[in-house]
Design goal:
This protein has one domain: Alpha-Beta Barrel (TIM Barrel), CATH 3.20.20. The chain is built from 9 helices and 17 strands. Strands 1, 4, 5, 9, 14 and 17 form a 6-stranded parallel sheet that branches. Strands 6-7-11-10 form a 4-stranded mixed sheet, with helices on both faces. A 3-stranded mixed sheet has the order 8-12-13, covered by helices on one side. The chain is globular. The chain starts with a strand and ends in an 8-residue tail after the last helix.
Length: 284
């Protein structure tokens, strides 16, 4: 069975890790790299409007600090009421320290995960059951922590499509891993199911539709940033460019449906699999 999930990382605008600093900054504009949130807020509303129009429920990984800033102008409970809420950390911190050189201790990581969940619950009225690590930096220690804190799944890793199948798969700690997918484009180059290159003008929707044609079973996780339809690393976009970015996403989602792929949320897929006896590879 071919399933897909459209996921959105709701985090600070054009976030960048800074060595020696725990929280992420934003790509500097006019020499100022302080965290910004306005592009993420606008992009979140636009993406929800697109998904609602297409009757697709999305999975929104909220970075708690960004969500708090957005909630100053947007009613997140109302906006996201039809969609899944999941966690993307507290302040887009690198829990492993791979990019910052500041790995979290066990207690520090627990505090960050719990504070993020508490804030997301306060802002949305729901407790997140899924997690995507900032920068997709995760390890076995973080997976065990998430399992201990009652999470159902992680979606931070990337797997190759093998034998025309892609995730989900069980982890030793008891979590389900919903990996992003890596396949091959029409030229034989690697392509990842995160839309980052498309938003930066390096790929086209047809590349992702070609990726969708490479699996016959499992669930393919598609991903984007909320800010990336409004701002790129080069700068902010005008209204015509924003409309083009949204049109590219629509083209991929329409292409998936044209191929008979069913959209679901990640939490829904975990719970449905437990109810109907489907294994972690998507088979019974």
């Amino acid at each position: 069975m071919r399933r897909a999930a459209f996921t959105v990382d709701v985090d600070r605008d054009v976030n960048v890790p800074v060595p020696g600093r725990r929280e992420a900054m934003s790509q500097p504009r006019n020499g100022d790299g302080s965290p910004r949130f306005s592009s993420s807020a606008r992009g979140l509303v636009l993406l929800v409007e697109l998904l609602n129009e297409l009757s697709i429920r999305g999975t929104f990984f909220l970075e708690a600090e960004t969500a708090r800033h957005i909630a100053g102008t947007v009613d997140l409970r109302r906006l996201l009421r039809e969609h899944e809420i999941a966690s993307h950390g507290l302040s887009h911190e690198d829990l492993t320290g791979a990019s910052t050189g500041l790995p979290f201790t066990g207690s520090e990581a627990t505090d960050a995960v719990d504070l993020a969940a508490d804030e997301i619950h306060r802002l949305t009225g729901r407790v997140p059951k899924g997690f995507r690590a900032p920068y997709q930096h995760v390890d076995d220690t973080i997976h065990r922590l998430l399992s201990d804190r009652g999470y159902l799944y992680d979606s931070s890793m990337t797997d190759d499509i093998r034998d025309r199948c892609i995730g989900p798969r069980p982890l030793p700690c008891g979590l389900t891993e919903f990996p992003l997918a890596r396949g091959i484009d029409a030229r034989g180059k690697h392509i990842h199911s995160y839309f980052w290159p498309m938003h930066e003008g390096k790929r086209r929707p047809a590349d992702y539709i070609h990726l969708l044609d490479q699996f016959d079973d499992g669930l393919m996780v598609l991903a984007t940033h909320s800010w990336h339809v409004v701002e790129t690393y080069a700068g902010r976009l005008d209204d015509d460019q924003v409309a083009m970015k949204l049109g590219e996403i629509r083209a991929v989602l329409d292409g998936a449906r044209d191929r008979g792929i069913t959209f679901t949320t990640l939490e829904e897929d975990v719970r449905r699999g437990a109810e109907d006896g489907r294994g972690a590879t998507g088979t019974v």
